Amino acid sequence: MNLKRIILEDRFTAHQKISLLLYIGAPFIIFIFFLMTMDLNYKGFFLLAFLILIYGLIICISFTKRGFVKINLNLYRGLFFRGKLILKKKIDLKDKSKLSILKFQKSQKLAWFAAARPDLATTFNSFEINILNERHTVREEIITLKKEQSAEKAIDFLTLNFQLKNEVYCPRF
Questions:
Q1: If one looks up domain 94-173 in CATH, what number appears?
Q2: Computed from CA positions of residues 154, 155, 156, 161, in that sequence, does the dihedral angle turn out positive or negative?
Q3: CA-based diameter of the chain, in Å?
Q4: Sign of torsion, CA 108 113 115 117?
Q5: Closest C-alpha to 126, from 109, 110, 150
Q6: In the β-sheet with 84-91, what is the strand arrangement from edge to edge?
Q7: End-to-end CA, the chain
């Protein structure tokens, strides 16, 4: 099996990681500490182990990274944890021979500051990598990245390993 990969960026921002670990993880942490203070039988130990396992899974999901994987001649968008591929989704390159990066300015609301400043948000640039048909009339987003350097690395990986050409997006009807 011929396998090449590139790991590009974290899947979640620091704000999103903290939100996942606190908001979703808080009930698990509370139940874990509650169970640890009790005198447990085998069912209690099983429940404690199960809750610890679920919270560990939440931690793993919080620290995943995104990237691409080439397996044989197929392209996959991959989800990585500590350099290991844990999930992949095939990207269909049929009738797609071009690549393009589109730059967008986006904003993200910050959940913790709603009472003091309800519209507090951070703005950032995002770089959306798209695969295109020959005339650029069909566009499919394959990944969105926050760093321009990561987008350039991804384009280099895709043009080097697949029959794709990087072009400026300009639809010709």
A1: 3.30.720
A2: positive
A3: 72
A4: negative
A5: 150
A6: 3-10, 65-71, 74-81, 84-91
A7: 40
